[in-house]
Amino acid sequence: AQSVAQPEDQVNVAEGNPLTVKCTYSVSGNPYLFWYVQYPNRGLQFLLKYITGDNLVKGSYGFEAEFNKSQTSFHLKKPSALVSDSALYFCAVRPRGSSASKIIFGSGTRLSIRP
Amino acid sequence: GAVVSQHPSRVICKSGTSVKIECRSLDFQATTMFWYRQFPKQSLMLMATSNEGSKATYEQGVEKDKFLINHASLTLSTLTVTSAHPEDSSFYICSARDRGLVFSEQFFGPGTRLTVL
User: Fold this and answer.
1) Which of A42, A46, A105 sits opposite B43 (nearest CB)?
2) Which of A13, A34, B54, B103 has the fewest beta carbons closer than 10 A?
3) A63: number of CA atoms within 13 Å, CB side?
4) Do the chains contact at A43 and B110, CB–CB below 8 Å?
């Protein structure tokens, strides 16, 4: 079965420190990869996506993600965390091959940045 | 980026009543829209895929007669929760994919918090 794993329910980081939110996937082929962020009582906001090309993808708010094909991972990173980055982060994948294919979400990781 | 709106943002209703939630793509056309349900501190659960001009495709375990979906135009999909009960209380989120972009990500609405008393 196709799946997306976010092994950490919560990540705690001090402001100014680098952060990493992990994501691995089990999807056949080379899926499209996404990261979304959700603030309380809000919908999801798109952060970045990997389609093809450079393995390091840069996105909104200073976030970036590194695609690793051999490890089937797409970890989200930021060099220096801000308190305002505290939110719920979702990794997602969409299989290639069909425009109708559905996006598969990970379980989410709550990121908490302490001042 | 593309904008998806939802209305209402919050609704409280009595048990047994029906509630309609609208999802609109404001600056793009979406042949496909998706309806999700999210419980507190959990991930999104896909309920159904809404296709413009045709019947929605429901996920396993989702009652199509209870959650009516209509996708009448390329910019509007509606979800009607019929005869709502307290267990239907949840956060409902829609999303849409821009039909003009092959590699389009899904754009999400801000969500609708439904509380059934």
Assistant:
1) A105
2) B54
3) 24
4) yes
Token pair, residue B15, equals 């048990």
Residue B82 CB burial class (10 angstroms; 0-12, 13-18, ≥19): middle
Instruction: For residue B49, list chain A residues with Cβ-Cβ distance below 8 A.
Output: 100, 102
Beta carbons of A33 and A66 less than 8 angstroms apart: no
Highest mean pLDDT among A37-46, A68-77, B1-10, B29-38: A68-77
Q: Which chain A residue's Cα is nearest to B92?
A: A43
- Residues B40-95 have pLDDT tens digits of 878 889 999 988 888 899 999 999 999 999 988 889 999 999 999 999 999 999 99
pLDDT more than 90, % of chain B: 67
Q: Is A12 on the interface with B (CB under 8 A)?
A: no
Closest alpha carbon within chain B to A103 = B106
CA–CA separation, A111 and A87 (whole Å): 5
Over residues A41-88, the pLDDT tens digits come to 788 899 999 988 899 999 999 999 999 999 999 999 999 999 999 999
Assess contact for A16 and A81: CB atoms under 8 A.
Answer: yes
